[in-house]
């Protein structure tokens, strides 16, 4: 069986399980379950702390896993990213009191508090900065107020929490993170079971981004309409019983669907319908 690590809690957990369910895999009904066997799909799921997943995958104990890019890089494990999953996006930034520093290059001799010591230590070294790194679990916003550090490095969404603590964001982002699929570094990329899993997950990503659009239009307007709905390869165009009309079917980006419907209507298209896509293979 393919052995897959899945986050058991936190912001990664529910979106990961939802995506796996959409991909056709069984998922646990009880949060206390630590192992779930999906015999029909020949997969065994292990529900682990998100921070530990890269360690298990990197050691070869599990085949692949779902975790955050920040957690993968912070772990220092022999694991690598093989697919982006498009959820749990976050930005990792430095912050300090106004006037302390303007850029990471000015952190020399200072102390940086963070929950991602491995990631920050490497980033400082890559930038040639000699600064101490203090590891803290949980929120680090108060580290400066309590005199533990002059700088913090943490996940930033809106920046409101940092501003409320009297801090300002410094320099460029350390990292743009999101949920990713990982495997052990050096493992073969053509494993049939892994490739099947990736195709299923890719199918979910595409199904979430696109809708199927159907409409009827006069023959003389087909080329202009098809230019609006080119599809992935090309749209399906079928003659209608009523002479001079055709039916067109094409996948279009969900975010653009309403605008495309408006433009098709202006071209003379009628019976314009959109339907959700539950699964696909490209």
From TrEMBL:
It is found in: Cytoplasm. The keyword DNA damage does not apply. Its cofactor is Mg(2+). Residues 49-203 form the ATP phosphoribosyltransferase catalytic domain. Feedback inhibited by histidine. One of its GO terms (molecular function) is ATP phosphoribosyltransferase activity. Its main location: cytoplasm. InterPro entries: ATP-PRT_HisG_long, ATP_PRibTrfase_cat, ATP_PRibTrfase_CS, ATP_PRibTrfase_HisG, HisG_C, N-reg_PII-like_a/b, N-reg_PII/ATP_PRibTrfase_C. Signal peptide: none annotated. Coiled coil: none annotated. It catalyses: 1-(5-phospho-beta-D-ribosyl)-ATP + diphosphate = 5-phospho-alpha-D-ribose 1-diphosphate + ATP. Residues 207-278 form the Histidine biosynthesis HisG C-terminal domain. Catalyzes the condensation of ATP and 5-phosphoribose 1-diphosphate to form N'-(5'-phosphoribosyl)-ATP (PR-ATP). Has a crucial role in the pathway because the rate of histidine biosynthesis seems to be controlled primarily by regulation of HisG enzymatic activity. This is ATP phosphoribosyltransferase.
């Amino acid at each position: 069986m393919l052995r897959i690590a899945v986050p058991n809690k936190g912001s990664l957990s529910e979106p990961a399980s939802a995506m796996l369910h959409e991909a056709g895999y069984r998922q646990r009904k009880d949060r206390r379950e630590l192992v779930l066997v999906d015999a029909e799909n020949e997969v065994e799921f292990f529900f682990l702390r998100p921070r530990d997943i890269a360690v298990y995958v990197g050691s070869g104990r599990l085949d692949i896993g779902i975790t955050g890019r920040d957690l993968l890089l912070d772990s220092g494990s022999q694991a690598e990213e093989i697919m982006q999953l498009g959820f749990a996006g976050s930005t990792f930034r430095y912050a300090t009191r106004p006037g302390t520093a303007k850029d990471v290059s000015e952190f020399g001799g200072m102390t940086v508090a963070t929950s991602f010591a491995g990631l920050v230590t490497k980033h400082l070294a890559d930038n040639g900065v000699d600064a101490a790194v203090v590891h803290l679990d949980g929120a680090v916003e108060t580290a400066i107020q309590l005199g533990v550090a002059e700088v913090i490095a943490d996940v930033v969404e809106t920046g409101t929490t940092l501003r409320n603590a009297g801090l300002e964001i410094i320099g460029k982002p350390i990292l743009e993170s999101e949920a990713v699929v990982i495997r052990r570094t050096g493992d073969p990329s053509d494993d049939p079971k892994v490739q099947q899993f990736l195709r299923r997950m890719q199918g979910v990503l595409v199904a979430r981004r696109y809708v199927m659009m159907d409409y009827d239009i006069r023959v003389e307007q087909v080329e202009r309409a098809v230019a609006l709905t080119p599809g992935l390869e090309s749209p399906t165009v079928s003659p209608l019983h009523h002479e001079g009309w055709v039916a067109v079917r094409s996948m279009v980006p969900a975010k653009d669907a309403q605008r495309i419907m408006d433009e098709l209507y202006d071209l003379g298209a009628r019976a314009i319908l959109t339907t959700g896509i539950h699964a696909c293979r490209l």
